[in-house]
Amino acid sequence: MAPIIHTVNLRKVYAVGKERVIALNDVSISIENGEFCCIVGQSGSGKSTLLNQLAGLEKPTRGKVFIGSHEISAMTEDELAKFRQAHLGFIFQSYNLLPTMTAAENVALPLMFKGISRSQRLAMARKELKNMGLGGRAEHMPTEMSGGQQQRVGIARAFVSKPRVIFADEPTGNLDSITSKQVLYRMLQISKQMGTTFVMVTHEPELASCADRIITILDGKVQSDVVQDPATRERNREALFASLEGNMRIGGDSASGEVHQKTAAELASYAAPCCRSPAARTTQTVNFAHSFRNIKAIGNTA
């Protein structure tokens, strides 16, 4: 089966004053359909730049980026905007919530581009907020929520339209350790149930150890690209979630009953990538932020 994402000799160079900074240098990687992939590396290693390239948020200086059979690195801005709306979801480290909209309206906004009625998309948004432990915050404005709550709103927004691929830049960076684990559980659940491919940048080794694939970036190059064997991956997941003692609810009682009944051992079964062909799936994703032309990349050389 062809990979869902792959790059060929990817290179990105930034001009910083009179200097030229090589952020990525001849990077060639592949990520399989349904994989949960973590990109790790020290600050400044190029991992966020790689994420931006894979998501089509920045153009490479040289090389190619493919998602499915589409060479996104060769697309125009209009073509990229339509492609993102149709296939991709994003979780930003800086939330990127619209301050004049409630939590529910922020989460529902991607669905507007699909022509879904206001009442239906708000109902879908409230359901996803409930899954994120924010059922009671649906009508709150971003300024009325903590940083961690805003982060969960951003995560719900990425999930609500069931994307083919979700790119996440430090999605748990503003969450406490318990909520981080519960959110990771939810991501793994969606990856398993929906066949969604996740590409996540993280500084947290514990979270990365639960991934199907771990790509380590050093000085703009791939230092290692490891596909974990299922036994190791399952042990890592069981160890990570053991402290939750089966309580997989995000934020307490407002989360869905189905999720919190799972145990750490059951979670380990959320390891194998979904085998459904991309062609057999109905693409439902829209990401609102990237339908606007002035949205900047998540970061440059972090």
Question: What does this protein structure show overall?
Answer:
This protein has 302 residues and is an alpha/beta fold. It contains ten helices and eleven strands. The protein has helices spanning 47-55, 77-87, 103-112, 118-131, 147-159, 177-194, 205-208, 230-241, 257-260, 264-267, and strands spanning 5-16, 19-27, 30-31, 36-40, 62-67, 70-71, 88-91, 165-169, 197-201, 213-218, 221-227. The strands form two sheets. It has a six-stranded mixed sheet with strand order 7-8-9-4-10-11. A hairpin with a 2-residue loop joins strand 10 (213-218) and strand 11. Mean pLDDT is 83; it is low at 252-264 and 270-302.
How are the SSEs ordered, and which strands pair?
Layout: E1 5-16, E2 19-27, E3 30-31, E4 36-40, H1 47-55, E5 62-67, E6 70-71, H2 77-87, E7 88-91, H3 103-112, H4 118-131, H5 147-159, E8 165-169, H6 177-194, E9 197-201, H7 205-208, E10 213-218, E11 221-227, H8 230-241, H9 257-260, H10 264-267
Parallel strand pairs: 4-9, 4-10, 7-8, 8-9
Antiparallel strand pairs: 1-2, 1-3, 1-5, 5-6, 10-11
Helix content: 25-40%
- Rounded Rg: 18 Å
**Beta-strand share of residues:** 15-25%
User: Biggest sheet, in brief?
Assistant: 6 strands, mixed
Residue-averaged pLDDT: 83
* Helix/strand class: alpha/beta
The global form is globular
Low-pLDDT ranges: 252-264, 270-302
Reading the helices and strands in chain order gives EEEEHEEHEHHHEHEHEEHHH
- How far is the N terminus from the C terminus? 32 Å
Spatial order of the strands in the main sheet? 7-8-9-4-10-11
Supply the number of helical segments.
10
Number of strands: 11
